[in-house]
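Working notes for the structural subgroup meeting. M.R. asked for a predicted model of this chain before we commit to crystallization trials. I am recording the input and output together here so anyone reviewing the notebook later can reproduce the run.

Input as submitted:
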Amino acid sequence: MPTITRVEKLLSISSEPLTPAPQANPELVRDYPLGSELLRLLGRKNGFYTFESALHVFPLTSESVNGLSLAEWNSETLWRNDYGGLTLGLLFFAEDILQNQFCLSSSGVIRFEAETGGTRLMADSLENWAEIILRNYDDETGWKFASRWQAAN
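Returned structure, recorded in token form:
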């Protein structure tokens, strides 16, 4: 029996893709060592939600009714502008319910704290990132907060 990877497990418990699979490999991820891993992930499921929408992975491409694409979310004219140079060299691909970000850097997957702009290296691959998320989804995504809010509202 084949072993399921952590990325496959994360995909298996997530929503349907937010948009159809992308047709092209964009230049957006070219400068990141883990860019090809992100393309493979989004090729399998082009954006999704999981843990009762506590984790949102942005699609590579979007259709306006389904929210922002990876390029749109990473635009300097959107939220990144408020952080100045703190976002340079980072490609933001996912966010938790509290708008803390997960991003690619030259070092691997970084967690970017929305409130402070602080960063910490989380993982050296998307597989290891998925393992951390699956193992500790409450702390990493704010799931308990999201679940309680959804139950109350």
